[in-house]
Amino acid sequence: MWVTGNMEKESVPTNCRGLREDGSYACKSKKVMVSTLEGIVTIFNEEVYIPSDDTFIIVEGARYLIERLAERRFTLVEIGCGTGYVTISVLKNVLNKDLLNVYAVLIDISPCAVDSASKSVKVNELDTYVDIVQCDSASCLRGESMKLILFNPPYLPVEDYGGWLAKSWSGGREGLVVWNEFFDDSLRVCGRDCVIVFVISSLQNLGKVLQRLLSNCKCVEILVCESFFYETVCSASCRVGEAN
User: What is the mean pLDDT of the chain?
Assistant: First the structure.
């Protein structure tokens, strides 16, 4: 499904409007690969960003935050879901604690990622709890609709848009073009007392990131950090709304 427009501006969902002329509705890659990490099976092709160090950092941060929140009901969205590994890991952790009132929306602009996430969610037997949508950032969601928002955006300060895989790591100028888009949409779809969990990197312009966080978040917390020889990657949270 490709969803266009901003549902907040329209009174009804735009839903499916047919096959796009540029062919971006369908994934052209036919090669299928399977991987198992920490009991989670992912199905993907060469055009999908596979779980890596930054993936595990946001998973650890999200798990830590959820345990502290002690919530028994979740509506969450992952923007730029890739294989779906992050949400699958979070859901498995939540469901293992008998928190059954859970609903998740996985979003990606890439048809290859949407196909991968759909298959991965199904093989992990979580399709009862998840809907998957192909759209640009969270433009397909109504405002103030989510409790928890996750995103691990492309953050490398490069502009390489040659294919779907290149788009999955190309963050644009200062590594902030996609990050800003995801953060803006996260703020829009945040419901009452909402938390946004995201990835930041030392390769980005962190001064500008900090300015945005201080201007929009009631509380900012660095959750998990790991240093590599070329960068430091952290997961962080931004609480929005009526937080204490």
Answer: 84
| Helix or strand (DSSP H, E) at 239 | strand 232-240
CATH at 234 = 3.40.50.150
Residue 147, classed as helix, strand or coil, is strand
Nearest alpha-carbon partner for 93 in 115, 122, 131, 64: 64
- Close Cβ partners of 192 (under 8 Å, ≥ 6 residues apart): 144, 241, 242
| Among 102, 88, 95, residue whose Cα is nearest residue 42 | 88
**Among the residues of the chain, which ranges form H helices?**
53-69, 85-96, 111-123, 164-167, 177-189, 206-216
> Which residue in 229, 178, 230, 172 sits closest to 199, CA to CA?
178
Cα(139)–Cα(134) distance, integer angstroms = 10
* Pairwise pLDDT comparison (77 vs 175), residue with the higher score: 77
Look at the chain and report how many structural domains it folds into: 1
Q: pLDDT tens, 119-171?
A: 999 999 999 999 999 999 999 998 888 889 999 998 887 776 667 766 776 77
On whether the CB atoms of residues 116 and 82 are closer than 8 A, the answer is yes
Q: Is 186 exposed, middle or buried (0-12, 13-18, 19+ CB in 10 A)?
A: buried
136 within domain boundaries: yes
